[in-house]
Write a structure and sequence with these properties.
The protein is mostly helical. It is built from 5 helices and no strands.
Length: about 90
């Protein structure tokens, strides 16, 4: 199954989060809804994604970047996760 459109959609939502045109809650809901994608990836991908989303949600409780929660850093890490997931999902 070609999952390229799904990765394009997730990349677009990541960019929207960076521009702050989508809420953290809606962003996390969109990413967590990708159960078929997560099922197609090794289990560690779901674990890492949930860790990143949880940290993003916790960080959203702060009004500015703190030492523990840098939203821009978490967005960068989510971008890396998405790149690696896309590589993993490509047929060999």
């Amino acid at each position: 199954m070609n999952q390229e459109p799904l990765f394009t959609q997730l990349q677009a939502s990541l960019e929207s989060l960076g521009r702050q045109t989508v809420s953290v809650a809606d962003f996390c809901k969109t990413w967590r809804a990708q159960v078929d994608l997560l099922a197609a990836l090794p289990p560690r991908y779901a674990q890492v994604l949930e860790d990143l989303l949880g940290r993003l949600e916790a960080g959203s409780l702060f009004t500015e970047e703190s030492c523990s929660f840098s939203q821009s850093e978490l967005i960068a890490q989510l971008g890396m996760w998405l790149d690696k997931a896309a590589q993993q999902a490509r047929p060999a």
